[in-house]
């Protein structure tokens, strides 16, 4: 790997072949592979094998524009795709009731996806919307914002909160990062022009894939863009 015999994204030969070539036992190979998976040099995909981790190109993401994942990737010439983790209608959690302004009798639409750019898993996004805004979560095919746009519900403003998390368990496996990896937890609450909250999304972004960039101005110089 380090000598370039097999490159990023390539499949690893079978345990048996490696053991034969390196003249070591299969147990030793298995242990070495597990260590390399833990350190992030190799990734294991269920059902398809073990691969050299793809080379990550960091994505620079502006914090002053309200864009969708699909738009962001298209602008960079990358293809956005998703693996669906959940789409359905549920009774709201206390957080969802508070943020979306729902009563306990109302329902919430949830759309949860693993977001992928080309072949690289970039983020897990769990969006909650009122059923009035998204009566049929099944209508979201690729872009949530494109679906909302069709009914005049695309948000025009959002507040985003970013914090650091160390990922483990199922989410780490989905993002193909080792347990304990540094990631970003991003919460977006977005609004319609009327001031009504339309979207409450909690996401986990890979820490090794994103640089978030914000332009800062001296206060009082250009209030509108500083707050944009
Ligand atoms: C970004 C935001 C999410 C938003 C999503 C919509 O990734 N962090 O809050 O839901 O874009 O993206 P798309 O329209 O591609 O589904």
Question: What value does the Rg take, in angstroms?
Answer: 21 Å
Morphology call: elongated
Q: Major sheet, described briefly? A: 6 strands, antiparallel
Q: Which ligands appear in the coordinates?
A: 2-amino-2-deoxy-6-O-phosphono-alpha-D-glucopyranose
Helix content: 10-25%
The helix-and-strand class reads alpha+beta
Main sheet: which strands, in order across?
4-5-6-9-8-7
Number of β-strand runs: 10
Order of SSEs: HHEEEHEHEEHEHEEEH
Distance between the termini: 45 Å
Give the low-confidence spans: none
Strand content: 35-45%
Overall mean pLDDT:
90
The count of helical stretches stands at 7
Concise summary:
This protein is α+β, with helices and mostly antiparallel strands.
Key descriptive features of the protein:
228 residues; alpha+beta; six-stranded antiparallel sheet; elongated; binds 2-amino-2-deoxy-6-O-phosphono-alpha-D-glucopyranose
List the helices and strands and how they pair.
Elements: H1 15-22, H2 26-38, E1 42-45, E2 49-52, E3 59-62, H3 69-75, E4 80-90, H4 94-100, E5 108-117, E6 120-130, H5 144-150, E7 157-167, H6 169-174, E8 181-191, E9 197-206, E10 210-213, H7 223-227
Parallel strand pairs: 3-10
Antiparallel strand pairs: 1-2, 4-5, 5-6, 6-9, 7-8, 8-9
Helix pairs in contact: 1-2
Residues 68-70, 125, 127, 143-146, 188, 199, 201, 203 line the site of 2-amino-2-deoxy-6-O-phosphono-alpha-D-glucopyranose.
